[in-house]
Design a protein that fits this description.
Chain lengths: 56, 177
């Protein structure tokens, strides 16, 4: 029985699977986090620049 | 009118703080004594009585010095690195992982990415929680806001934003090795 099942179960973890997992769990969440954080950082950076211009 | 700044400076002589912090404390305390003095003068007290009234507000200068010292030291415990990096990072990590756990329990079924090979059984290679991904920009924005508000550098801000994926990234890194 085990021998029969063994033929149909993929045992090898392929490199492609790792890349898909990497995309789903690291790259996509990282991009989503940056999508929210980057605009805030831009706003703060602009505010800081304008303050420096005013103080000069 | 007495020179309150000079008086406070001499009384808090042994205060072990950074020069700017010490100056700040002296200025605040002198301003308070000055206000009290002016208040007493307005109430009709003679200058000497008003000054005496102010001085009687501080019963024990040594005790006051010790209390100021303790309060300031406690403030300094939360260093800049904690405020600019660790606090926002751990908060984004906690929120994102907490939300993921809630979505896994109560949320809709995830989108499964699986490899198909005839009728062979292949475990899903990726499970994508779309509602979680959609909530992450808000969490990233919060991390960036907190780090920026604390005066974090660009590096600290970006590290705080992407901090929740770093543990997962390290697991994958181990997998590649």
């Amino acid at each position: 029985m085990i021998a029969i099942l063994n033929d149909h179960v993929a045992h090898n973890i392929m490199i492609a699977s790792l890349f898909i997992g990497l995309f789903a769990w690291v790259l996509a969440p990282g991009a989503a986090l940056l999508a929210g954080g980057f605009p805030i950082q831009l706003v703060y950076a602009r505010r800081l620049t304008s303050r420096r211009v005013v103080s000069n | 009118m007495p020179d309150w700044q000079a008086l406070v400076r001499s009384q808090l002589d042994g205060l072990a703080l950074k020069p700017h912090e010490r100056a700040e404390v002296i200025e605040e305390l002198a301003a308070h004594l000055d206000e009290t003095f002016e208040g007493a003068r307005r109430q009709g007290f003679a200058e000497q009585d008003a000054a005496q009234r102010c001085l009687s507000e501080v019963k024990d200068w040594r005790d006051l010095r010790r209390r100021i010292q303790t309060a300031r030291t406690m403030e300094n415990i939360m260093t800049n690195r904690v405020k600019q990096f660790w606090l926002p990072s751990l908060l984004t990590l906690l929120l994102s992982m907490g939300l993921l756990a809630l979505i896994q329990i109560f949320g809709p079924n995830p989108w499964m990415v699986a490899r198909h090979s005839g009728w062979s059984l292949v475990a899903p290679v990726a499970v994508v929680y779309i509602p979680w991904l959609l909530s992450l920009p808000l969490i990233g924005a919060m991390g960036a806001y907190l780090s920026n508000r604390a005066g974090g550098s660009q590096r600290a801000v970006f590290s705080s934003i992407v901090f929740p994926v770093l543990p997962i990234w390290s697991f994958f890194w181990l997998g590649f090795l």
